[in-house]
Design a protein that fits this description.
6 helices, mainly alpha, 2 domains
Length: about 200
Amino acid sequence: MPHASGISAKQSAPGTVRRQLIYVALGTLLILMIPLIAMQFSDEVNWGPGDFIIMGVMLFSAGLTYVLISKMRDNLAYRMGVGVAVVTGFVLVWMNLAVGLIGSEDNPLNLMYFGVLLIGILGAILSLFQPRGMMRALYATSLAQALVPVIALIIKRLQMDPVDMQPGVLGVFILNSFFALMFLVSATLFRKAADAEKEL
């Protein structure tokens, strides 16, 4: 008889989690080998120790987050929702740190994206990672993501500063729409997971 909450005791076994964390660590090392090898053949790739440390922490943190949260439910839609949210958040942070989504990476307006992720993280924690609570958190994250370029434009105009958005205002809106859409996909998957548990 399936458990009403959808939690899988077998999947949450400590041995299974430890094994998957080893896989995450190995995957992190393998991915970091790509720029390391590329540096031996091209001057275009020039990473310092700090770059490897930051990327390593980001990769491992993303993998760790997925392993720990996805194990809370034995539900494919729930796990897919976690995966989409984690990957989207990772790419958002990566792009923000590397080149910035609004202007350059030094533009303080880019700090709003960390606020976007904070909304999702706090929402997930406050909901105790329940599917319906996760759904609401990701809907809020999607909305916040879509509002960032609008807020950036308002701030710039109130400050009487020229609007410096690369790759252009339209490009920034399109890029933000993509991330907002991905968070929306994650929310939809959590809604599906919640509906599946409701039927049990």
